[in-house]
Fold this protein.
Amino acid sequence: MDLLAKLSGIAERHARVRALGLEGVGVVNDKIISPTRAIIGGRETILAGTNNYMGITFEPDCVAAGQEALAELGTGTTGSRIANGSFAMHAQLERELAAFLGRAHCIVFTTGYQANLGMMSGLAGPRDTIYLDADSHSSIYDGCTLSGAKLVRFRHNDAADLDKRLSRGEDDGGGKLVVLEGIYSMLGDRAPLADFIAVKKKHGFQLLLDEAHSFGVLGAGGRGLADEAGLEKEIDFIVGTFSKSVGAIGGFGAGDHPYFDYLRYAMRPYMFTASSSPASIATSIAALRKLAAEPQRRKRLMENSARLFAGFRALGLDMGCDVVSPVIAVKCPDEPSTVAMWGALLKAGVYVNLALPPGTPNKLCLLRCSVSAAHSDEEIDRIIALFGSVVAEGHGLRAMSA
Amino acid sequence: MTDTAAQICKLLEPFNSNGTALSAKTDISADLNIDSVTVMDFVMEVEDHFDIEIPLNVLSETRTVEDLAKVVDSRVKKG
C-alpha cells in the first residue's frame, strides 16, 4: 500500500482549484512592498489576509533592531535553550513581556504553534482533563493530543454547555484545564469571558486564554481580551504569538503560578527545538515596546475594522460575527463559488484568505479578511468596492443573505 | 442491530449527505465521507442524546457505528 495514496482526495481538490487558473493556498508574494501591499502574479495587491494587525513589519526601529542582532549575535542559535543555553536576549524578551502583561512569569517559544503545543502538554497530563472550545485552533487540539489528557469538547462560546459537561464528568481526582481564545481566528468572535468565569467559580478549574489574535489588539493596554473585559485576575495562563500584532515569529506562555517556570522542563515543544533566532527576538522586543508606547495603533485598527465592517454590512454581506473585529469573514454559499470569488478578488487586486472546511467551523466556506492598522481609508474602501462587484453583485450573495 | 446502534444511526442521518445505507458496520468517517471536525460535531450530538461524556481521545479506535455503540453502552449510567 502506497503511504501517500491517502492524499488522493487532497490532490483532486487541489486540481479543481488549479483548473480555475488559481494556486489556492500556494499564493506567492513575489515582492512585499509594505505591510498592506505586495506584488502577486505581477499585480500590485492589497493585503487583507495576513494577520498583520498592527502593520508593524516594516517599522524602521524594529528592522534596525533585527539587523543589529543579526550582525552582533549571528544568524541562529543552533539549538535549544535546554541544551545550548539561552541568549541574554531571550531572557530580556521574557522579562519585558511579563512586565507588559503584568504577570510574574513568561516563557518564550520558537513559534506560536509550539507555544500551544507546549502549554497544553506541560499543564495537563494523562490523569487530567482538558475542556476545549469546539472552534479551538489546531495548535490547541494538537497540544491536547500531545498531553495525553482526557479531552472534552464543548460547544463554541457556550458557557452553559461547558457547565453541563463539567457536571456530567465524574470527579477522577485529576486537574481540569479549560481553554478559550480571545478572538477566534476564523469568524472573529470573542469568548464571552464573564460567562465562563461564572462557571469557573462554580466548578473550580484552571483557565487558559489564547490571545493569539487579541494580544496587542484588544484592551486599553493591548494585553488582549482579558484586558478589555477587566478580567485578567481570573485567567490563570495566557498564550500568545509574535507572528501577528508583533510582526515577527514566536510565541509565549505567561502566568503567576509559583511553579510556572518549571514548565520549561516539562514541555517537549520547548525543550526539543531550536530557540528563536536573535533577529526574531530583537524585532519582537522592539515591536513590543512599540505596542506599549503607541496605543493609537489599536485605535486606528479598530477604526479600520469598523469601516470595513460597515462597508460589508451596507453591501448586505453575511458576516461571521456581529460585532466589529479585526477578523471579518464573509460567509459564502459553497466551495466552488467561494474559490471562484476568492480568485476573482485576487485578480482584481485584493488578497484575502480562502477558508474552507475542515479548517472552518460548521462547514462554512469563508472569504476571511484581516484588517491592519496600516490600511489607509482608500485601501479599506477599495476592498469594500471589490467585494461589492465580485461578491455581492457578481455572485448573488446579497440575495442569499437577504 | 442493537438499540444503541439504531439510535446512533438515527443521530447520524443529518450527517449522511451521500445517502449511505446506515448499518452497524458503517464506517462513520470513510463511508459518509465526513471530515474530522464533522465527526467531532456528530459525537457531541451522541454525548448529549445519551447524556454521557465521550472524550475525544477514546475515539481514535472507534470507526464504525458498532464501535461507537460499544463506547456508549460502556458509559451510559446504569440504573
